[in-house]
Amino acid sequence: MSGVQPTGNLHIGNYLGALVNWVELQKHYEAFFCVVDLHALTQRPDPAALQRAVREVAIGVLASGVDPDKSTVFVQSHVPQHSELGWILTCLTPLGDLNRMTQFKDKSVQQPENINAGLFTYPILQTADIALYRAERVPVGEDQEQHLELARETLRRFNFVYGETFPDPQTVKSQAPRVIGLDGQAKMSKSKGNELGLFETDEETLAKLRAAKTDPARLRKSDKGTPEVCNIFSYHGFFTPAAQREEIAAGCRSAQLGCVDCKKMLAAHLEAVKAPIRERATALREHPARLDEILAAGASKARAAAESTMQLVRERVGLRPAP
Ligand code: AQP
Predict the structure, then answer these.
(1) pLDDT of residue 137
(2) Is the pLDDT of residue 131 over 90?
(3) Radius of gyration of the chain from Cα atoms?
């Protein structure tokens, strides 16, 4: 089980940190992947923009290789049990645990005009997302590790208080659990404007790469560089075959290869990954009814699984159906 927020355009951090693993895990396990629109409300999006983003992110998930015949792909708000279990788990979570969450602190700085309670309780809703499907593996980027730790503690507490109900959800990290943004400072993020978008064209990528910082010691092409400190070289690590990467590193160290050429090579390797994703996304956009069908089928499967868990949870905590 995993989710992605419809808060902007998917970027290569989301792809490398999470989606790559979603595609892999669906081959071996029963998988649930959702567009977490309730989580996105913590950023108070424009309602029409939110609806568009939900569809675009769902398209991105499918275009990246998540197969709706293998995985259940759905939108969080189409399964009301997420909110219901979220409340029950809220009543089991100590304030002190939430106080430690660094994402809340980061978001409070990022959106000081809107520090709402949903931002604070965000990881509890995330715990409900996982628990509803009694998930054992959660493929996410490193930024979510702290939330996953809180989820495990909360679910262990539930099991202790009400009896064994939920498995311990393990974090599954990819080979690229923390992709740094183009600013070279923070993790790549939809809302920080430091991203390389998954749907961007070759030209758009190249324009962004041209403006991106490299080794600060390389002011001129004739300056020898240190690839290990260069953010652009770190991206080569994800997209460029090892042998060519060695050549690039040697060229940078000896000043035979300039940063502009290094960036062009990166853009070409990135394009090889993005072009088929863009193509599949275009095909999906051209058939909106097909997307509706996938999301409706996903919601129906997810609701059935979620309701089965909720019947057990209601029973355990003492909530009885109306007579
Ligand atoms: N830079 C990253 N490197 C590796 N993994 C990342 N993820 C996000 N950024 C990176 C992983 O992508 C999945 C979906 O993320 P999300 O949309 O649910 O939330 P997020 O972590 O908050 O992603 P963003 O892009 O930073 O969104 P905003 O700006 O809206 O907050 C998660 O598994 C995440 O770990």
Answers:
(1) 98
(2) yes
(3) 21
Centre of ligand 1 from the C-alpha of residue 285, in Å:
23
- Judge whether 224 counts as a catalytic residue: no
Query: Could you tell me the distance, in angstroms and rounded to a whole number, from the CA of residue 188 to the centre of ligand 1?
Result: 8
What are the two backbone dihedrals, phi and then psi, of residue 185, each rounded to the nearest 5 degrees? -105, -65
Distance CA 185, CA 15 (A): 19
From the list 187, 213, 264, 301, the catalytic residue is 187
CA of 206 to the centre of ligand 1 (A): 23
How far is Cα 119 from Cα 106, in angstroms, rounded to an integer?
10
Q: How far is CA 39 from CA 35, 51, 117, 246, in A?
A: 9, 13, 12, 42
Q: Which residue type occupies 105? A: K
- Ligand 1 contacts (CB < 6 A) are 3-5, 7, 13-14, 17-18, 140-141, 143-144, 177-179, 187-191
Does residue 227 contact residue 249 with C-beta atoms inside 8 Å? yes
Query: Could you give the domains of the chain?
Result: 2-178+287-317 (3.40.50.620), 200-281 (1.10.240.10)
CB of 306 closer than 8 Å to CB of 79: yes
Contacts of 39 (CB under 8 A, 6+ apart): 3, 5, 76, 122, 125, 126
Q: Taking 90 as the threshold, does the pLDDT of residue 285 lie above it?
A: yes
Ligand 1 atom with the smallest distance to the CA of 177 is 4
pLDDT higher than threshold 90 for residue 46: yes
pLDDT more than 90, % of the chain: 94
Residue 92, number of CB atoms within 10 A of its CB: 17
User: Would you say 144 and 171 are in contact if contact means Cβ atoms under 8 Å apart?
Assistant: yes
Q: What residues contact 286, with CB distance under 8 A and at least 6 apart?
A: none
Ligand 1, pocket-test mutation among 14, 38, 125, most atoms within 8 A of CB: 14
Categorize the per-residue pLDDT at 217 as very low, low, confident or very high, splitting at 50, 70 and 90.
confident
Please give the distance of CA 292 from its chain centroid, rounded to a whole number: 22
pTM reported for the whole predicted model:
0.95
